[in-house]
Amino acid sequence: MSMTGVGPSAPFTHAPASVGRTMWLVLLALMPATAFNLYLFGWPAILLFAETLGACVAAEALCLVLADRPVGPTLADGSALVTGWLLALSLPPWAPWWTGVLGAVFAIPLAKHAFGGLGQNPFNPAMVARVALLVSFPVAMTAWVAPHPLFAANSPGFVEGLRITFGAGMPDTVSAATALGYIKTELTRGVPVSQSIQQTPDLLDMALGIEPGSLGETSMLLILAGGLFLLARGIISWHIPVGLTGSLFVIATLFHAINPDRFTSGVFHLTSGATLLGAFFIATDYVTSPVSKGGRLLFGIGCGLLIWVIRTFAGYPEGVAFAVLLMNAVSPIIDQYTRPRRFGRTRDGEPLPVKREP
Amino acid sequence: MARLFPMRGGVHPEYRKELTSEKAIINLPLPDLLYIPLQQHVGAPSELLVAAGARVRKGQMLARSDGKVSTSQHAPTSGLIKAIGDITAPHPSGLPQPTILLEPDGADAWAELPEPIADPFSVDPKVIRERVAWAGIVGMGGAVFPAAVKLDLGNQYKIDTLVINGAECEPYITADDRIMQEHADEVMDGARIMARVLNAARVVVGIEDNKPQAIRAMQWAAEGFAEVSVMAVPARYPMGYAHELILAITGHETPAGKRTAEIGAVAYNVGTARAVAQAVRLGRPLISRVVTVSGGALRHPANLLAPIGARVADLIEYCGGFTLSPARLVIGGPMMGQPLPSLDIPVVKGTAGILALSAAEVGERPQSPCIRCGACIEACPVGLAPLEMAALIRKDNLEGAARLGVEDCIGCGSCSWICPSHIPLVQYFHYANGMLNHQEQERRRNERTKTLVEAHHLRLEKQAAAKQAAQAARKPSTPKAPNDKASA
């Protein structure tokens, strides 16, 4: 009784882990915040969300066919869905349909498959798409609406939703400003932060997410819950979220204490815009962030500081996407300098000296 | 309890030890034929002492240690030497190697054994070392390094701690667990004897905390011996890797490329300690070992005391055969074991386990691209970056992989185990290290050839010069001639 040949080498057992499982857990973690925001922004948001996801999956399938790779199994790993989902969450909720389609083109073929597909892209595909859209179509990408919860009196119905997303677009009358945008505009008009901050939603509304903002970024509490779920399941480590929010909070608080008329507070920075979505779901993208714990902490800190710099000094009121892309660019360098120390060796790779206790 | 020092990296595979942890060790009935390879250890193969047709008795030496790092082989039972032939070895290559075929006569009659050493704590340590060398004892945790050679380390280094490795971190395997539960006294005796030979002041038995019964048994056996302590170490693979266990127990990290003895610690497996006790107290050589036969595809998993040389097929048959077609047959544990090249290969001194694993247990999946999740970096107990090394090796950049430390890889398989993309990382590193080794040998050979060629040229030149000089000497009219070397 003899077996044919010799199989692969050990181990002959495996952790119950797969790429697909990871991706689906990320989607599960995004579910509550997404569901709440789809409810909050009504039919146009639901249509835009569905259409963006569809466009990303279709783009992935097309790329796989062109690359002559297996379509079914690769789609099943859910990575295109995650990209599409995050892209949709970063769009203005009532943005026109073509932002989703164009975003999918930027994200999937250009930002991902041009570099070799899953695992090969240096930049976060969803953020590449968002930034490309924002720079190319600043008007459409900054047209925000106040919450119009489904079934509320002022909420557009399905047909009206179709008209907004696929037709005439968003009526001018509903436009509103995000807290970050409002404060930036007021600052340029000479209104100090201490005064304009009075007009922004209160802390409770910001925590719950009842405010204008991107399709999936407003509900701080639900995003936090999803993020903590990912932490608990070991899908992400604490290093990037803590590095990002910690550095953003510290630097914002510091400058706010120095000049509250010019700089918003640390709490405001944490609760507004895409800070938490970025900290838990975007900056933590495996492919484009460093691989070691130390590297991730550095990466998170870099993101947090850049977010603050961009929000505070740049032309754009929000800086999460830019900050993440800039830090993506230095991920390989961070990796190179944050490799773990090897067993029995110094940081430089030399064997440890033999020291004996007397 | 003493403080434990944290381990780096490591994983928590499903242990599945409950399949056999409650099963007492039972003797495997003598098979019809035993296959005793001349090489069951690290070092030189043993030198054959018997010829085909010879009648031998149990415990008789069949092959003796040949060289500094080598060991001897003994007859596991009495019988007839049928043949000396090449038999497939328990090695991933599946290549044949010289093996003694012994047909048991059923009498199981002992040969004349050396006298028991009555008081091993007062005799010259040399006597103990010689006995251990005679008994053919090797590291039974899988390292199979001749135990007697290691016992010499006490002469070269100052040893503070003898670590008895009862971690048994490989899933499924319960051989050491059972040995500690059933023969704690022998293990303790062997440990103390070795501590004396090594001149080690203290003995620490390290056992993973998933073996509470073994811990209790060893604690009980340690009672009254002030120099011995039993430590429960966290069940975290690969805790049983000697460098990790020594780090956890002593807090000292063995410098790369050095021996643990240089930081004052030597580690032996519990099975080895027991074998030493038997050799010293009973004068018995190492002729059998406890093997865990387990896995989801096996009918009756068990811990068997098998004579060295019993075929895997004999053990599996005794355990009732398979319930379903095994997806993988493994010799050793599932994390670091070898795929079985055949069921005909024999149990050797380093065989701790034989596993028949079902497809569900193996959990094989098609590979997908690396998503840089970094799980392998966190899992690596050595502090390597497996994903980066694998990416370089895939592009055949072996030097790059060497710069990242691929040669430090201990092959524990933690990275492969945890990889969500199911990339066989450790296989890449085995390949790279094999190639790097080969390149190094090649380089050395080329260098030697070059030196030889250069020497050859030099010789030719010298001959030519000598000839010229001789000619010149014969023809004094040549302008160059007068006072050059030829006259010297």
Q: What percent of residues of chain B are in strands? A: 15-25%
Number of helices of chain B: 14
Number of strand segments of chain B: 17
Care to count the β-strands of chain A? 2
- Rg over CA atoms of chain B: 27 Å
Gross geometry of chain B:
globular
Can you list the strand order of the major beta sheet of chain B? Answer: 1-14-13-17-15-16
Terminal CA distance of chain B: 81 Å
The CATH architecture designation of the domain at 17-29 and 125-289 in chain B is 3-Layer(aba) Sandwich
Shape of chain A: globular
Q: What is the mean predicted local confidence, pLDDT of chain A? A: 92
Order of helices and strands of chain A: HHHHHEHEHHHHHHHHH
Quaternary organisation: heterodimer
Content-based structural category of chain B: alpha/beta
The CATH superfamily name of the domain at 17-29 and 125-289 in chain B is NADH-ubiquinone oxidoreductase 51kDa subunit
Major β-sheet profile of chain B: 6 strands, mixed
What is the average per-residue confidence, as pLDDT of chain B, rounded to a whole number? 92
Largest interface chains and counts = A-B, 50 and 78 residues
Distance between the termini of chain A: 59 Å
Q: Helix coverage percent of residues of chain A?
A: 55-70%
Uncertain stretches of chain B: 484-488
